[in-house]
Structure formats: C-alpha cells, structure tokens
Amino acid sequence: MWDWNYVLDVLPQLLSALKMTVWITLCSFVVSLIVGLLLALAARSRFKPLAYVTKGIIEFIRNTPLLVQVFFLYYSLPLLMGVSIPAFYAGVIGLGLHYSTYLSEVYRSGIEAVPKGQWEAATALNYTKGQTWRIVVLPQAIPPIIPVLGNYLIVMFKETPILSAITLVEMMLTAKNVVSQSFRAFEPYTLVGILFLAISYIASLLVQRLEKRMNLLRGK
C-alpha cells in the first residue's frame, strides 16, 4: 500500500536528483545545438569529401543505440585510449552528440526554407560566406525551428534515465538506490514517473505557447 510517510522521506532525495537531471539535460542540449549546427553546415559543404563523411557520421550515430554510445564513452574509451571520462561528462557528451544528429536535420529544414532570393540578395550585396550565414541565413532559418528544438529538449530530458547505466546519479539511479535500501519499489518509481510527467508536461505547454507566438510573429 501507498505509504505517505515513506514518500515524504524519499521525496527530498528525488528532488535533489531532479536538479541533476535537469542540469544534465540542459548541458547536453547546448552540446547538441552547437554540434548539430556544425553538422548541418558540414553536410551542405561544397567540398564533397567533407559532406560525405559528415553524412556517414550522422547515419552511424543515428543507427546505433544511445546506450551503446554512452557505454563506449564511459567504459571502452578508457581501455582504447587511456582517456577516463567522468560519468557526468560522458553522459553530456553521449546525449548531446546523439541528438545533435537529429538537430542537424532540423537545422537543415530551417536553412532550406530560406527563400532563394535571400541568398541572391546577399551575393548582390557582396557579402562573404560568413556574413551571408551570420546576417542573412541563420537569423531567418532558426526562429521558425525553435519550437521543434524545444520538443527535442523534452525528449532529451526523458532519455536521461539511460545514463543511470554509467552510474550517473540522476533520478532513476537515485530511486534504485532508495529501493535497494528499503525494498519498497512502488513509491520511489511512481514518484520518478510523476516528476518526469510533470516537468515534461509543463515544458510541452511552454513549447506550445512559444510555437503560437512564433506563428503570430511570422504572420505579422
């Protein structure tokens, strides 16, 4: 049966772990935003070898499980290269790189939505490549895709329990540790589910509100 006294005992630990889960998500999202944009630009490069290699890397990362990638970073890399990565950084890098391949596709769709006339106007104004991207293309390509990026942020948040496999103390591993001490699984795992649901739902409402606002701005 549900024990409220037990819930009040374990809730502070889970809320503390929630802070770590949110922090991991935000750091991973920043990595995915930066690397995703670089991958999108490299995949569009006129230098064909770079474009082909980039597309190959994207397909490889997309078609291998996130858990395997995280295991490789945390367990295999130290054996192969003697480079030991703390669990936090392995989780951030693994989650960030994995979703950067998906965000690169989001960036690509935004870039391709920029009218061809804008590129021609930049050429007519004698802009360099860097100026064309910085002043003309990206300011028009990124705002419409912000809601989609927000949705991926929510997806990444819900993927963080995978990182418990590399001993990263987020909510799921904290719940497992609590269960191993008390042998009561119902309350801790239910609380984890409720916390994930609550944060994801609030975030989805914010993304929906942002999307409506972006649509209104584009309408103007």
UniProtKB/TrEMBL annotation:
Primary location group: membrane
Localization per Swiss-Prot or TrEMBL: Cell membrane
Keywords from the UniProt entry: Amino-acid transport, Cell membrane, Membrane, Transmembrane, Transmembrane helix, Transport
Keyword Transmembrane helix applies: yes
Signal sequence annotation: none
Transmembrane segment boundaries: 20-43, 64-89, 189-207
Membrane topology: Multi-pass membrane protein
Start and end residues of each ABC transmembrane type-1 domain: 18-207
Protein family (similarity comment): Belongs to the binding-protein-dependent transport system permease family.
UniProt-recorded name of the protein: Ectoine/hydroxyectoine ABC transporter permease subunit EhuD
